[in-house]
Amino acid sequence: MTGRADRANPVPALVLSEYLPYRLSVVSNKASGLIARAYQARFGLSIWEWRVIAVLGGGEAITAQAICEATAMDKVTVSRALRALAERALVRRRTSPSDKRAALVSLTPEGQSIFDEIAPLAMEWERSLLEGFSAEEKRQLGGLLDRLWQRADELARNDGGLP
Amino acid sequence: MTGRADRANPVPALVLSEYLPYRLSVVSNKASGLIARAYQARFGLSIWEWRVIAVLGGGEAITAQAICEATAMDKVTVSRALRALAERALVRRRTSPSDKRAALVSLTPEGQSIFDEIAPLAMEWERSLLEGFSAEEKRQLGGLLDRLWQRADELARNDGGLP
DNA sequence: CCAAATTAGTTGCAAATGATACTAATTTCC
DNA sequence: GGAAATTAGTATCATTTGCAACTAATTTGG
C-alpha cells in the first residue's frame, strides 16, 4: 500500500484554495504581517530582530549559532539582525572565552526592557488571533502544526523524497 | 469578560517555540520551500508563477485582478509573474473587449501542458506532507486554518484592533 | 604537532520584493 | 455630456533577501 494514485484512487484535482501549502502560506503571512507591522511601527524592529530578542529574553547569553537553531533563521539573517540590534545597543556581544570564533550574545538593559514591553503585547496578539478557539482546538492546532513541522523536516532530509 | 490579563489571569510567558505566528511561519516556509525548490528546479517557475498557473489551469480566461483575488497575491506580484510567463509563452493576454484597461489572461497550450504535468505532482507533494494524518485530522487542520484566515482578516480590517 | 578540513560569523553582489507613483481606460454624478 | 474620481495594470526606485565567497579560529587525523 503505497498510497500512490492509480485507476482506483485517482489524484484529486488541484484547487489552489484547497491546497495546503498555499493555505499555510496565506494564513502565516496574514498573521505575521499584522504583527510585524506593529513591531515595526512601534519599536522599529523587523520580524527577525524581534525573533532574536524573543530568544534572548530568557536572559542567557548564547551564540549566534544557538540563535539560528532557536529561531529557525539562517545564519546570515541572524548576523544581520544582530548587527542592527547591536547598533541600537539592544544586544551586546562578547567573544566566547572557550571559542574565539564565536560570540556570546545577550540583551543589554535597554534590550531587556524592550523585550519586557513587547512580550506581553505579543501574547495578546496571539490571544486575539485565537479568539473563538476552544482550549481543545488550540491544543489540536498546536499538535497538527508540530506534526507538519516534523514531516516537512523528514521530507527535507530525504532531499525531498518528493515525487 | 474581556479576556484581558489581570492578577487572576496572568499573561503566560512568551516562549518563541510555542508562539503561534512563529510556528505558522516556520511550518509554512518549510512546506513551501520544499515544493518551491522543486518547481524551480524542474520547471523554472517561481512560487508566484506557479500560483498563477494553478488558477489558470481551470481553463477560464480571467483578468489579472481576478488572479489577485484567487491567489492572495499583490497586483504588482501578479503583474511580474504574468510578464515572466508571457515571455515564456506560457500565458496569453488579450485586451478585454468590455474593459480596455483589463486583459483576459489564459494559458497557452504549452502553459496548459505544464499545468497538466505539475498539478498531479503538486497533489503528490501535498499527500506526502500529510502522510500519517488521518482523514479526520486533515479535516480538522483545514477547518482550523480557515478559521485563522478569517480571524486574521477580521483583525486586519479593524486596523489591527490589536493591543 | 602541523597540514587539511571544519566551523563561526561577516561581507559583497545579484536577484527578489515592496511601496509609490504613473498611464490609460472607465465610471460617477452633477 | 463632461470634469472628477476610480480602477487595471505597469514602471521606478529603495530595501531586503539569498547565495557564494571570504576571514579567522578550531578540530581532526596522520
From TrEMBL, chains A, B:
Coiled coil: none annotated. Residues 17-150 form the HTH marR-type domain. This is MarR family transcriptional regulator. Keywords: DNA-binding, Transcription, Transcription regulation. Gene3D superfamilies: Winged helix-like DNA-binding domain superfamily/Winged helix DNA-binding domain. PROSITE patterns: HTH_MARR_2 (PS50995). The keyword DNA-binding applies. It comes from the Bacteria. The keyword Transcription applies.
